[in-house]
Design a protein that fits this description.
Helices cover 48% and strands 10% of the residues. The chain is an alpha/beta fold and 276 residues long. The chain has 2 domains: 7-171, P-loop containing nucleotide triphosphate hydrolases (Rossmann fold, 3-Layer(aba) Sandwich); 179-238 and 245-275, no CATH class.
Length: 276
């Protein structure tokens, strides 16, 4: 089965990036990474992609990863900080280094560049790492866009940027499959056009949760283990502001790993990435 194109979602995200920065906050299985890839392909331009890991909770490590990504995507834009980090002692002042990175990008960045912070939920429990990310969003460089993808909202406190139209947040409802996309995926999985009853059952079971739809389609349209009810929990969760309260850091849509990991990898390997 080929990867299903989602041109409407990609176009919406691309337009949001044309206007400013972008945050994708949705649980596992909503296809955040793939949607970002498609949007960035539409826009073109250089991309510095940082996929966060647990080690990036250390702000110095996160800064080093950022500088490394920038060295490939925008050579020369952060060379001074890169040299400093390469020769720095084990402990650095992350706040000072982050401000220095901002100054370098404001002074040197000319061509369009998007910095992607993926799997950013890894940083949610680190105030210092979250501060590094927040500094990226406040850099005054017209050519720069920042896109963040996370399963939970980070404490970034970007309400002023959002109110000014310079940052847009998309959530589960924006990334859920439409009924037409459900039909397309079910037809690709079964080799036949699904009936209205099959589509109603699939939508009722998943409410468009992409990974749940993929699992159910791979089961011939029946609700697969781990697919039922997951999207419903998320769809009824109030949209979190940019700058969440603690209650917004719950991730109710993540199915148990035992229920989803094996079927996804075996039946739909291309959808394993949708768990990001």
């Amino acid at each position: 089965m080929d990867r299903i194109s989602r041109p409407a979602v990609a176009a919406r995200l691309a337009r949001a990036l044309d206007d400013g920065h972008l945050l994708l906050v949705a649980g596992a299985g909503f296809g955040k990474t793939m949607s970002l890839e498609d949007a960035l392909a539409l826009r073109g331009g250089a991309v510095a992609w940082v996929r966060c890991a647990e080690l990036d909770r250390d702000p110095g490590r996160l800064l080093a990863d950022l500088v490394g990504a920038l060295a490939s995507a925008a050579p020369g834009a952060a060379d001074v900080l890169g040299e400093r980090l390469a020769h720095a002692p084990l402990q650095i002042d992350a706040a000072v280094a982050s401000r220095e990175l901002a100054r370098e990008l404001e002074r040197l960045l000319v061509d369009p560049l998007t910095i992607v912070i993926d799997d950013a939920e890894q940083l949610a429990d680190s105030a210092e790492a979250s501060a590094v990310v927040r500094d990226l969003f406040t850099i005054d460089a017209p050519a720069l866009r920042v896109a963040l993808a996370a399963r939970v909202a980070l404490p970034l406190r970007l309400s002023k940027l959002q109110a000014a139209g310079r940052a847009a947040q998309f959530g589960p409802a924006d990334l859920a499959f439409s009924p037409d996309e459900c039909a397309e995926l079910l037809q690709a999985a079964t080799g036949r056009e699904p009936s209205g009853a099959e589509l109603d059952a699939l939508w009722s079971a998943t409410e468009g949760w992409p990974l749940g739809v993929a699992l159910s389609a791979a089961s011939g349209g029946a609700a697969a283990p781990g697919a039922r009810g997951s999207a419903a929990l998320v769809a009824r969760t109030p949209a979190s502001p940019i700058g969440p309260t603690e209650s917004h850091r719950v991730d109710p849509c993540v199915p148990s790993r035992s229920a989803t990991a094996t079927p996804v990898r075996r039946l739909l390997p291309e959808y394993a990435a949708a768990a990001r």
